[in-house]
Amino acid sequence: MPPCPYKTPPFGEYQRRILGDTMLKPFHFHAMEQGTGKTWVNINTAAALYLHGKITAMIVLAPNGVHAAWALDQVPQHMPDPVPWTAYVWDSSEELKLRQRANNGRLVSAAFKLFADDATRFPIFCVNTEAFGAVRAAQAAVLYLLKARPCLLVVDESGDFTTPSAKRTRALLRLRTLAPYRRCLDGTPVGGSPFDLYAPYRFLHPAIIGQDTFASMKATYADWIELERGDNGRKFKIVATVNGQKQWRNLDVLVARIAPYTTRITKREALPFLPEKLFSKRYCTLTTEQRRLTRELTEALRT
Length: 303
Prior knowledge:
With 303 residues, this protein is of the alpha/beta class. The protein has helices at residues 13-22, 38-51, 66-78, 92-102, 110-117, 129-134, 136-148, 167-175, 198-204, 214-220, 251-258, 267-270, 288-302; strands at residues 27-32, 57-62, 85-89, 122-128, 151-156, 181-185, 224-228, 235-239, 241-242, 245-246, 262-265. Strand 5 (151-156), helix 8 (167-175) and strand 6 (181-185) form a beta-alpha-beta unit. The longest helix is centred in the last third of the chain and has 15 residues, at 288-302.
């Protein structure tokens, strides 16, 4: 239980139990299906860690639009009142203007520094995944906050970080050791392959999967066959299939390794406690042309 009253009550006992079991752990994967309340769990986790003196800031990496919903909807709705929070939503268009003027890809704006350095507040920095992977200034801002304060680093929709060679994944793994508390969130943590687990769990802690490289992960958990291209004779490997089913192996070992660091909740399990429907907003930044067209359409519909 967090050392303060909930601002909003949990849906059911399962949320209370998950929070109590995981809130003070340095790393954990909340594999909770959409609508089962994983955002509530992590906002209250941040509150508990802050009020226990473990962290003084929170960073959320989430898909574009979802990152704004954290700051504008979820945190105001669920963050307990004793936490003096303030939120900063990454705006790529504004930061891009600053970066172009400074001609410096590592620029962090003065406004963000004031936000990050205000010792009287609990800063919550919400960055869209796309900007984090492509914009050096976004990575620099995350790095600045991680170095300035002990943070809870939350990766929402961790499926966006399953490709170890991707820029965003490599950037995330470089920052891992700077965040004393780390969380992955995803309703479906495995898309179509157990290999999807490698990078997110390596972000949480390299020892969980127990493989030092992605290549060793692939060799351990699948049967491979070698084929030859007909046009040039070059050889390549694919996962073996039998009757259309890919031949994974040692999955019981993999499940046993990740189980202590994973909470899995499905809608079927949570159904007795869930409200009839859950709605969420999605935010997006419009270009100048999009704003003009939206304004013209709005005026046309009013006439």
